[in-house]
Amino acid sequence: MNWKEEERIAAQLAKAMAMICVRNTMLENIHAGRGLVTKAGDYSDVFVVDAEGNRVPWTEASRIDDDEMRDLMRQVVNRLYTFQVCFSEPGFQAMVNRWLGAARKWDEPVLDAGLAESGNWEMG
Prior knowledge:
Helix content is 52%, strand content 5%.
């Protein structure tokens, strides 16, 4: 298999894994809240008022607590593990192909330079 074909397959797998193992998790519930209006465009004009009356800029407010983050990471790791273990099963591959229909509309992935350069190894 040539490098271009490997890149194409990797791009499809990345999209499928992102959709199935990350997007379709409790992250959807966190994202499902009411959207906020920003006239500035960067949310610098949006504030959250907590139970003690503290006015916190949206850009400084944590939007997920430690327990939610831990639960999200567990779910993502479990789904990534399941994806890899079950990928050779025809029924699982059929499910992945169904989800790829939606993920195909996404932007094509690009190499994350920071991650790609984090080790002493060469690609291709």
